[in-house]
Every structure is written in structure tokens, then in C-alpha cells.
Amino acid sequence: MKHLNIIKREKLFSLIWICIVCFACTDQFEKYNLNKTQLMEITDKELAGLFTRAQISGNCLLTSDQYSRGKSNISDHFSGYTVIGGVDREQNVLHLSHEQSVFKTFYSQSIPAIVAILNNTVDENPTAYHVAMIWKGYVMHRMADAWGPLPYTEAGNGKDVIPYESVKDIYYNIFRDLTAAVDYLTPEVSRNPGLNVFGAGDILYNGEVIQWIKFANTMRLRLACRISNVDPEKAKTEAEAAVKGVMMENNEDNAMIMDLPSFNGVQNGMCRIGGWHQNSMSTSMESVLKGYQDPRLQEYFSVVKQETTVDQPEIMANIGGYHGLTSGFTAEDIVAFKLYSNFGPRWVGENVVSTEVPINVSNAAETWFLKAEGAWRGWNMGGTAQSFYEKGIEVSIRQWRGASFPASQIQDYINSLATPVAPDNHPYYDPPMTDIPVKYTSNSEKQYEQIMTQKWLALFPDSWEAWTEYRRTRLPKIYPKKNSMNPNIDVSRGMIVTRLPYPDDEKTGQPDEIAKAVTLLGGPDLESTPLWWDVNPNGN
Predict the structure, then answer these.
(1) In sequence order, what are the beta bridge partners of 304?
(2) Which of 373, 346, 362 is nearest to 458 (CA)?
(3) How many Cβ atoms are within 10 Å of 318's Cβ, its own excluded?
């Protein structure tokens, strides 16, 4: 059989998914089986089903098996949030079959579903078209932030050759599409404040178009900050345009999957991994959360339980407290993985049901830290960096501790001069991760570190975004991995994993386009090659 690469499969999968959705929604199977070479016309109800599929597969890093393959084994520990149980993984070894599986899910499920919606709504239902375009931007920037150059404009066109585009071009195209979407949807919502599209098929916002406008503007600001070091003029223009519109500002705006649809295997991935105790709190998290006496600590992670016993007093002393594990540990260092803090009680416990725990896709606190960074850079964000920084902290704490959490305690935290502490990481005993307090300082360099450190805390558990921001800024100052088994990543030179290599299926099935992609990448197809927006010297 002739080899068929992942991206070329999109057309086939698109047809398959449409048939599946349509058959699930109607018994008129013959209607959808007449022409297998063309996209069929589908109803609003069927469009809603496709949008659900596009959202689930576009969030595959947060649900089911792909959480383990992608997020847990990649971004959770590259971001500094957690330490994974496998020694090779912790020492920068990638399992390319797993990364390929994540790539395949994005390109063979989410993108085809999105393209099918776009093709069926471009003329008949422009509201649905523009909301789907916003979702395409979200999915595609997450992919480009991991792999680099990818197909965007012609993704899902079913042709034998699917052109790859540079990360810069992908970003510029997303900016264009977000602008068009917001420009169309905003007056539509003004005329009809309750405007709804996809209804219950939209598992993030239940079809509320105003929320999609907020989501789009916040994403636009996110991407503007991302390119601030490589294209500062474009970044400033996009950022200032984004904040002129409505944005995600309160926790009611958070993009959350509250009720998981009944697709096979869909569950909150953190619950699944937490049940395995595959990830433990990192020493970076321990240093900051314990040092700041952060009220989110008890939500993010759990105290160590006596589930095992070892003949080492230093390790047994972890029981009953919050303790992190050293990133890049050796086989000799680790004695009992369960003697380090697991995910928090909302994800792990006897009464936790993984299909009932909400999934956090994007939160409003990020908006305030993005505004803080913009103001710190001198962009017109409509306020000061300090006010946005403090608001971001407040919104994040309320997200996790609830509306009833005392405002005085939040203010005490914002005004705190406490600094990170040294983790109890036997046998390394590292010093405190950094010396910055929570209270906003007068030192410009430390202000930026404060913004990025608190943003890192607020992004949890979105480690994919946290890893991306760490690559861009090298902040917060998370502890480097102690060891590396990957010859391409020399930790003694400060090197980190900066991207994911292309899947073998793509290299075999579309070699000319992959060769073009590597040229656009500006370096070899290795996990040490920085992406376009990553211009921080780090030994790579």
C-alpha cells in the first residue's frame, strides 16, 4: 500500500467524521452516502456535532490518552510544573511515537472537522464560520508553538501536496483571521446581544458568541506578546488593537469544558494521570508556592500520604507535607515516587470521577498578565503594569479558592515580601528558585520577572502555554534539569527542549514539504532548534 502521510489523510478523515456525526444525529444515512468524494451539506444540528468534535480533538492534550502522550510527557515537566516518573523522559528523551500520535490527532481529527464547518458555512452561516475560524487559530497556534512551520492556509484541502508555512506566516494569518472574526461578530452581537451559534455543541461557551469575541481578543493579545522580541512593531499594533475590544477579564469568561460529551475515552487527563501518580510536583513549584505561602498550593497539589515506606529519614519526612521532586533526577536519586506531592484533590481522590471534573482550557487571569507585560513594554493597555499584575493575581486566586475567599487575604498576598524557599530535595538541596517577592518592586528587570512568575502560577495547569512562554522568556527561573540523556540537549550549557521534531509519517509521505519546512525553521529538525519567536540565548 502506498504510504499516506498524516496531513494527506485529512480529507479522508474529514469525510469519515462528517458521516459519523451525521449518522449519529439522523437516520437519513442514504442522504450522506451518495457521493463519497465531496463534502455534503449538513444541518445546523450536525454542524454543532462537528464543532464538539473539533473542540474535543483540539483539546486532546487535556483529555484521554493524548494527555499522557503529549502534555504529561512533554509540557508538564518542560514547563517546570511537574516531574514525570520516567528517568529517560526527565532527562530530555522524546518518545517520537507519542508525539506523532498527538500530531495525528490534531491534523486528522480537529482540523478536518474545522475545515468541514468552514466549507459549509462560509456563505450560509457567517457567524458559525467566524467562530470556527477563531477555534482554528487556537488549535493551529498551539501546534505551531510545538513543531514550528506547518500547513495553515491550505490545511485540509485534500490535495496531494499541502504547503508548509513559516511560523511567522502562520501567526500573521491568525492575526488576520482573528481580526476578521472580531470585526464581523462584534456588530452582530451589538444588534443581537444573545447571539448564539452551535448551542450545546459548543462545549466551551454553550454557543455564546460574545464569549468567543472575548476569547479571540485575549488570544490576539497572547500572540502579540509572543512575537514581541522578534517583531516589536507588529506586536504593539496587534496588542493595542486587541485591548480595544472586550476580553476575558473575569472567571465567568474562563474557557472551561464543564460537561464532557459522551465520546469514547473522553475524560479529564489530569485525573487519569493523577490516579497513576505519574507526575509529582516539581521543586520549582515547591520553592515558589511554599515560599510565598500561596493560597493556591492546596488546590494545585496534595500533601504526601504514607503509601509506601523507605529506609531513608530524609524522604520519609515528606509525609504530611508538600514536597517536590528534582527535575532530571537519576535512577539512583528516586526511591519512592509516591513520597512526593501529586496533583491536588480536585483531580485525585476516592470520589473523583474523571468524566465529571471540568477541564480548564484558558482562563481570564492570563489576560491581566498579558496586559501587565504590554504596559511594562510601554504599549497602551489602558492602565499600569502594576495594576494589571495585581488584578491578575486576584482573579487567579479567586478562580481556585472561590468568590468567598477573603479579599483581605488576597491583598496580604499581593503585598507580601516573602520570597521563595529552598526545596527539601534530597540529595541536591537546591537554593531558593529566585529572590523576588510577590509585592511589585521598583526595579524594571525584577518587575518583568514578577509578571512572568505570577503568570506561570496562574496558567497552571496549562503547561503547553507555560512551556511556550518559558521558551520565549526563560522565565520564571525554574530549576534546570540535573541530567540529560539526549545528546542534542546539553544541560551543562543551559540547553532545553525548544520544539518537537516532525513525525516520520510526514517525512516519508511529504519529503519535499518537510525539507521546505526545515528551511523555514532555520535549523535542523531537532528538539534543540529554537522557533521564530524564541530568540533568547540559552546555549542552544
Answers:
(1) 319
(2) 362
(3) 22
7-261+363-521 maps to which CATH number? 1.25.40.390
Give the whole-angstrom CA distance, residue 249 versus residue 364: 5
The pTM for the full model equals: 0.93
Residues 6+ apart with CB under 8 A from 12: none
Helices marked H in 122-208: 126-147, 167-191
CB atoms within 10 A of CB 457: 26
Burial 80-90 (b: 16+ CB within 10 A, else e): bbbbbbebebb
Rg (C-alpha) for the chain, rounded Å, is 23
Residue 253 CA to residue 229 CA, distance in Å, equals 29
The torsion region of residue 480 among left (phi > 0), alpha (psi -120 to 50) and beta comes to beta
pLDDT at 8 over 60: no
CB 167 within 8 A of CB 205: no
For the record, the C-alpha cell of 455 comes out as: 503568570
* Alpha-carbon dihedral 48, 54, 59, 65, rounded to 10 degrees: 110
In whole angstroms, what is the distance from residue 286 CA to residue 432 CA?
A: 10
Residue with cell 483539546: 59
The grid cell for 290 is 511554599
Q: pLDDT tens digits, residue range 154-191? A: 887 777 778 999 999 999 999 999 999 999 999 999 99
Domain residue ranges of the chain, discontinuous segments joined by + = 7-261+363-521
Three-class DSSP category at 480: coil
Please give the C-alpha separations between residue 474 and each of 77, 327, 356, 390, in angstroms, as whole numbers. Answer: 14, 16, 35, 22
Alpha-carbon distance of 390 to 532, in angstroms, equals 31
Sign of CA dihedral 424, 428, 432, 434: negative
Contact (CB, 8 A) for 108 and 119: no
Question: Three-state DSSP class for 86?
Answer: coil
Give the orientation angle of helix 232-242 with respect to helix 167-191, to 10 degrees.
20
Note the pLDDT tens digit of each residue in 407-449.
999 999 999 999 999 999 988 999 999 999 999 999 999 999 9
Sequence-distant (6+) residues with CB within 8 A of 194 are: none
- Rounded Cα gap, residues 236 and 221, in angstroms: 9
- CB distance 6 to 103 below 8 Å: yes
Measure the CA–CA gap between 25 and 52, rounded to whole angstroms: 13
Beta-carbon contacts of residue 464 (< 8 Å; ≥ 6 apart): 61, 71, 75, 79, 142, 145, 146
Contact 177, 136 (CB under 8 A): yes
Q: Closest by alpha carbon to 209, among 194, 227, 226, 224?
A: 194
Report the helix count and the strand count for the chain, using DSSP H and E: 22, 4
**Is the pLDDT higher at 9 or at 494?**
494
Count CB neighbours of 259 within 10 A.
12
Length of the chain: 540
